[in-house]
Each structure stands twice: as C-alpha cells, then as structure tokens.
Amino acid sequence: MNQIVRVNLNDGSIKKEKMENDYLRKGGRALTAAILHDEVEPQCDPLGEDNKLIFAAGLLTGTGVSSSARLSAGAKSPLTGGIKESNSGGIFGQIMVRSGIRALVFEGLPADDSLKVLVIDGNEFTLENADYLENKSVFETFQGIKEKYGEKAGIVCIGQAGERKLPASAILSVDPFGHARAMARGGLGAVMGAKRIKAIVARDNKDVQVEPADAVKLKELRKKFNQMVLDDPRLESRKQYGTAAIMKAMNSLGAMPTRSFRQGTFEHIDNISGEKLHDNIVERKGKGKISAPCMVGCLISCGNVYPDTKGEVIVSTLQYETIVLLGSNLGMDNLDDIAVLNKLCNDYGLDTIETGCVLGILMDVGMIEYGDVGKCKEVLEQVATGTPLGRIVGSGAAVTAKVFGTTRVPVGRNQGLPAYDPRALKGNGVTYITSPMGGDHTAGNAFGARDKVDPLGKENQVELSKGLQVDCAIVDLLGICLFARTPVAADMGLVAELINNLLGLELNKDDIYDLARETLRLEEEFNQKAGLIERRLPEFFYKEKLPPHNTVFDVSQEEIDNMRIG
Amino acid sequence: MKISVTVNRGVQIHKKTIDKEQVLNEFEFSGSRVSELIDLLGLNSENLGLIFLNSRVVIDPAATVIQEQDNIEFYPLLMGG
C-alpha cells in the first residue's frame, strides 16, 4: 500500500496513486528530486501554479531503525530559484508512512485566497477550511489543530511568514513533545503559503500500520542497525551537548561566523558553547531537558529543551546553527537572548539561519547595534505583522543586502550561509556554490573531514565536497538523521537489506550510491534549465581577510567550474 | 619546553571520559611530536577528534612537531549536524 497522494488545488480533488517501480525505490530527497525533475517546468514561478510542493518519507522511514523518520519537503525554491529539499524530524513522517503514504504532492493554485488544512485520517483525505488559523503563529496553529484533531496528531504547518509567501519562511513539524522542528531552508514555507495550505494534519489512527515485506527479518536487521548507533563513540557527546558540541571546536578553527561574517572567532564563546548550554539546562532544572529526541524511537536524542532561569521552556531545540547565526553572528553574548530569538523565528515560521544572516546585515550597515536583542525582537515582530521592513527581512539575506546597499551579503546561490565561514572551512565554500541545494551545510559539510584535508588549504577541497555531497544525498534519501550516518556509511549492505525487507525491493549497496548520484544529477539538470548556474561566492569572501587566520576563499575557480555533480 | 595544553570535555583520559575542561598552562613537555604528547597525557586516540596546534588543525599527530610556547587543544570526536 505504498502510494503517492496528489492534492490538486485548482479543483480541490485528491487522487491516490500506487507507486510506480522507479518511484518506489526512491525516498526523501531522491523522490522529491525525481518528481520535480519529471513534472515541474524548471523556469516556472516558484509561487505560481506550475510549481509543486512535495512531502516525501525516506526509504528507511517505517523500518523502525533509530533516527529514520525525517520528512523531506521539496519544491522549486523562491529563495535560490533552483530545486530545493529540506528535511526535519517530527512525528508526521511516521504517521504518514503508517497510513500507506510515501509522498504527498500539492499541485496547482486555488482560485480563492482562503486557507486550507489537509487532514489525513488513515486512508481518508479531506481538504478543510482553515480560516480560523489565518495569521496564526506556528504554536497557535499547533494548539488550534490539536484541539480539533487530537493531541497526538502529526502536524506540518506554516506561520505568518509562510502565509505572506516570504522567501525566508520555513515549514514546521511538531515533535513528540509538542515542540517545533523546521524544514527551514530555501523558503519552502512560502510555496506552501502560495498554495494556501496552512497545515497538514495526520491523525494518529491506530487502525493503520506499516506492513513490511518481511517483518521478522526486518526486526532482526533493525536490532543490528540500532546496536551500531549505540556503539558509535560520538553518541555520548551528542546526547549531552547535541549539535552544539562543536561550538568551541569551530571557534578554535576560526570558522565560526561572528559579527556578520567579519570574524571567525567570538570572544564570548564560553557563554554560548555547547558546554554552557548543557550546564544551564542541568542547573536550571524545571522543564529544561538534555537528550530530547525529535522523533519517536531515536536512540541518539541530540535535542534539548532550553529553559529560562525559572525553569520555564523558552525553546526546543537550541542548535549549533541557530546559536551561531543568531548569536555570535549578531554579537549576542548569552544563550537566553539567542533562545528568545530562536523561539520567535519558530513561532513566525522563519528559517533561523536565513534570519540570522539578515539581522547580521542590518547590524553591519548600522541599523541595529550588535547585541541589541530588543531591537532584533522588534524587527522579527514586524515580519509577523507584515510591515515593509518585516517583509524585507522575511525576503532573506540577498534581498536585504540589496535594499540596504551592501555587498557584504553572506549567501551561496542566494541562500543565507550556515555557521561555517567558507574562508576558514573551504570545503564548505565549495559545497555552498556547487551543491544543487545552494548555501546549505547539510548538503556536504566538510567539518566531518577535518582529519583528511586542511580546512584552510586550497588543495583537495573540490574532491572532498564532491564526495560529501553524495554522502549527504544518501542520508537525505534514506530519511535518516545526519547523526546516524556512521552505521549507514559502515554497512550500506545492511541499509539496502532494511529497505528491501520493508518495501519488497531488491536493492544492493551499490544501488544506494547510484541513487544518490542520480538524485544529484537530476537536481543539477533542473537547476541548469532553471538558470541556476553561477558558481561564485559573493565578492567579499575573495577579498576580505577573515581573522584570526586572515584567509580568503581561494579554491581554484577552474576546478570548481569543472566539478561534475553526481 | 613549556607549552599550553587544553583537553576539552568528552575526551577520554586513560579510557575515562572527562566532564570538565582541563587547562595545563606552562606544561613541561620533553618530547617533540603531538603523538608523544597524546601518549604522555594518556589520551584515547580512538576517541580524539580535532587537534589544534596554535589554532591550526593537526592532520598527522605523528608528523607534527611541537615547539616552545605552543598552544595545543584536544577535542573529542565530533560531527557537524
């Protein structure tokens, strides 16, 4: 019962399709890429009728292995102008797969402007009016939906930024504890807003369950995979410090964006480090928590619930990228202020990375003082209320830089850069301008290869990025968390067996690599046709030296231009 | 020679994971290579991730020479998320 459900917004019809063989062997990013490549005109307007918004489960979602329920969203991006996939944890993907759905495709545009909610209840699908959710924030939307459809419903939704079709908007998914997890990158929330879908709800219907091709064998394989996750020597640091475990190391590397990418180190690092995050949570007690999973069954549990000094929740989960982009990048010297900004971004449905880049630009041009959290809050609130400044901020870093007349715009292919400065971690610079995903660390993060290639050197960065892009495409098509990639890399044969015993396929380990390369090729082909071909960082990365190493991005342009994707 | 050494949380010393950063200023070191320092401190090399020598990443500890007043930092295995 593996099916694609198509929601035609031109006429409101909903159609179920049994998955064809080629699509059945694809999941997550591979499936979103294939559908977009096959069905969407690359030069279409991202907010127009011809774009499609796809949600796809990874190939491992439904196997029950640890960390395997990440949900992919895909569409032509209003931010980059190219193909885009973004994924997150949450409970929606698992409920969707239990309902027999591997992908949801939203097509067309509705004739009127009213908002809708798609409700999935087992095998039943209905489009319902959502006027009561108009202009509601993400957490208000979660609440409104839970009151109507039950506490345990899986929810994917947009906030005010998405409703306003702003290119920095995210799609948020509810996690097992009611917190928000973001499919943040590329402005896919704006595509959802253009299609006037405020939310998708998957009711937790116990009558429907995953029906594996071989349940007994699958259980045996699952045990083996999960043991490999538990045996990973990095497990403890992920549990204790989450993604923020790398804060101090990144600062030592001199690659941590600080004060709008003017520095690679932050003098207040000890106040915003992973260790400080951990200690604040432990000391404040109350509702704070370390080791909070973002999906059911995750053995890694790298998330956290960050409390204020009274123990009340500010935000979950405070992560590395956000701490840097809303922290050191803005001169914020404490985690409490960063957590408050993170919460506002989540609530209004904004990508924290893009927003951090935007606020950094506003500080760099002198509109806001570095470290002024109050002014940052005011600006973010203007996104929610829709003032002209709010709309500029919600339009992302590239637009904001143009409006304020600065060339210091930290983007890769028009997308705000994540928390690794490309001048001091040059492999990431290559990824930002060659990946079909644009400036996105999850598309090929060279931090993991620090013992193989000198991050400051010019040599071997292109080859490094190329390999990492394949590795990341594998993770994205499997629906597995980046933190669970150690067992994936160690035994791809086991991964293929898991998929085969879930879906009744006959894949081998080479097929998984081929699938990843094919995904990258399809994405690159889409981007070529869409006109997303430039492989250059903004000029200041080539000219302005980054302290403390005083380096610029100087990887051979010829090598970059000759790099083949996939 | 005297060097500065920082061993960060999560690194294993004699197979025991430390939960507090250890800073050794003016540490007296009579060896010459980073790998010798790792052995001397009892660090578990299987659990070691980034090593910095004066803020530059050490790619090969056995080939990297330490000099007077150098600053060395050890981190556990880490992964970008």
Describe the structure using short key phrases.
heterodimer, A: 566 residues, alpha+beta, 6-stranded mixed beta sheet, globular, B: 81 residues, mainly beta, 5-stranded mixed beta sheet, 1 helix
Describe the structure.
The complex is a heterodimer of chains A (566) and B (81). Chain A is α+β, with helices and mostly antiparallel strands and 566 residues long. Chain A is 40% helix and 14% strand. Chain A contains 24 helices and 17 strands. The longest helix of chain A has 22 residues. The radius of gyration of chain A is 22 Å and the shape is globular. Chain A starts with a strand and ends with a helix. The mean pLDDT of chain A is 96. Chain B contains 1 helix and 7 strands; from the N terminus they run E-E-E-E-H-E-E-E. Chains A and B meet through helix 8 and helix 9 of A and strand 5, strand 6 and strand 7 of B.
Strand percentage of chain B lies at 35-45%
Strands of the biggest beta sheet of chain A: in what spatial order? 2-1-6-3-4-5
pLDDT averaged over residues of chain B? 94
- Rounded to the nearest angstrom, the distance between the terminal CA atoms of chain B is 38 Å
Morphology call of chain A = globular
Question: What structural category characterises the helix and strand content of chain A?
Answer: alpha+beta
Are there runs of chain A of 5+ residues with pLDDT below 50, and where?
none
- Which sequence of SSEs, written as H and E, runs from N to C of chain B? EEEEHEEE
| Class by alpha and beta content of chain B | mainly beta
